[in-house]
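One record is given unchanged without comment:
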Amino acid sequence: MRTVGQILREEREAKFYTLEDVEKNIKIRKEILIALEADNYQKLPPPTFVQGFIKNYAKFLGLDREKLLAIYRREFSSQKNKPHIMETFANPVKETKFSITPGRVLGLVIGVLVLSFFIYLWFQFHQFIGPPTLSLNSPQDQYTTDNALISIAGKTDPEMKILINGQNVAVDTNGKFKEEITLSSEVNKISVTAISKFGQKVTLDRVVYLKR
């Protein structure tokens, strides 16, 4: 029949736990765990404490605590196994406020990814409902020309609506547009407006002088 120590050791190894893993989780010194798995009761504290160790160890491994305690009581004899107070028992493992474990590292990574995702969504949403961008490459403001035909060229966000002096202008898939208009007077005001799907508007004005 297997002993308590054999059962504990075999179950721990089957679940790929090291003695250090167990020590960190149930706060029992590694030296005590070694003695417990070796059924070396002479190096362990009195039976009352040993039973507490077995309960905690069994709970951690998912074993039947009462069954293990019954086996322990049968195999342990206070006359044959004189209890010995270990130095390590006098200085139990201090509970640390924080320890780095694979689970905590994984949780931190997932948290950072989730936070980054929501920040990305916020920026995308803000950009989606915010006013469109608009830039004009030509003409420059206060531009003077002797040609009545002038080219209006610029760029906005894709899928934006562009109006030049109130008239719709075609926009390509990259947001670029270009249109030629005829100057009608010596001083010409040109208004270019970009309108988003949500009705947000941006307007740029240019004044162009025509020499006659």
The two ends are 114 Å apart (CA to CA). The beta strands are 134-138, 143-145, 149-156, 161-164, 167-169, 176-182, 187-195, 201-210. The first strand starts at residue 134 and ends at 138.
